[in-house]
Amino acid sequence: MPRLIVVSNRVSAPVDPAAGSAGGLAMALSAALKAYDGLWFGWSGETVETFTGEPKFEDRAGVQVALVDLEAQDVDEYYNGYANKTLWPLFHHRVDLTAYERSYGEGYERVNRRFAEVLAPLIQPDDLIWVHDYHLIPIARDLRRLGINNRIGFFLHTPWPVRQLLVTLPHHRRLVESMFAYDLIGFHTEEWLDLFRDYVVSEARGEIDGLGGLECFGRKVQTGVFPIGIDVDAFTAARDSREGVRTYDRMAASAAFRSMMVGVDRLDYSKGLEERMLGYEQFLHDNADMRGGVFLVQVTPISRDDVDTYQDMRARLDATAGRINGEFADMDWQPIRYLNRSYRRDQLAGIYRAARVGLVTPLRDGMNLVAKEYVAAQNPEDPGVLILSRFAGAAEQMGEALLVNPFSREELSEAIHKALTMPLEERIRKWQALMQVVRDTDVSIWRDAYVKALNALPVGETDDAPFHRDGRADAA
Predict the structure, then answer these.
(1) Which of 10, 38, 73, 331 stands the most exposed, by the fewest C-beta atoms within 10 Å?
(2) Do 136 and 260 share a structural domain?
(3) Is the model's pTM score more than 0.70?
């Protein structure tokens, strides 16, 4: 069995899995790396005055990791700049927030090249290389230029944008061309794969081979849909753990016979947090008889607080939550509990289980595993109801949720009312169907399906059109 090398912007291999704070993806990849005697490579999160290119090796709970430090300018241009101010908003259809600065693109190219130069000497001839997410799209191209002919796969954890928006990106063609240095490109949904194909065929005059492959820029790449999930057994164990049960008991007691709704999202404009609060406000206006009998717990850890857009959004959410509470609260009831902090996985499981309604209403999102965590946390005999944005990746699989347009506060208001008044029999039927989806898309199934597909591809398929250092690819 070949060794697996996982490459990501940050290495999230858990130092202590028993602590219960590691995410399902980190645990799944860690398990694969242990099985494949693999290596996890990425940025250390630290900065140095001068880039040395010397990796630092650690053992994290049996997983070998290789970390590289970056210069402050690298972090500013590559991470804060191109990754988070250019690609992230663009891929989430927020062109109004997208920053196109030449220095960002230059930093992005430079850091990907530096990562490739550090990683290349660590690669053995039979290794499988699995690159994750938008931070590192060009790294396969740079590895090919250094003579790496191994199988290299890429998985995008965000949506892929529509062609009409992607072409607003300077050098969009060069970015997509660099993806043809991979052997396998994976997406969460058919929609995003179709959008990628649309760009390749309509903008770059590529061709679809009918077997999941694309040919363009004189090269071929295989594509596929691999919907990610959660580690179901680990999450249900966390739910039933001492801390999970204790958290459930605390939340159930604090509800005081009221119906609790929950939203768990990091602070980001893609999550639809302001729209969610406004939809809930509409519900309170529309259903005066239900005021005092329901409340929303919104857990929103702060992220990217050094970016102006996020600072502005935090101020708006603080103001919106305060205004709604000020208008509707009573002496023994507050409609919104807005919490800017993180919770452990076992604590979140307990919070989910206590909630009669789960609100997952992003404006545009990747898979959004909160939807699957909420379902997995429920009591089979008295489950809650999932309200899910039709613009989350999970909506393609989880049709038994109450699917909503998060831009419509009236539609969200109606969905909340339906969820709170849904009969037990219907709640159980919907939950059973959703839970089957959660089990069928377990993160280990996603991981193994991708690695198997990558390993099945012939070695050297990308060698027919080697990339030159000036970024061109020879025509076939």
Answers:
(1) 331
(2) no
(3) yes
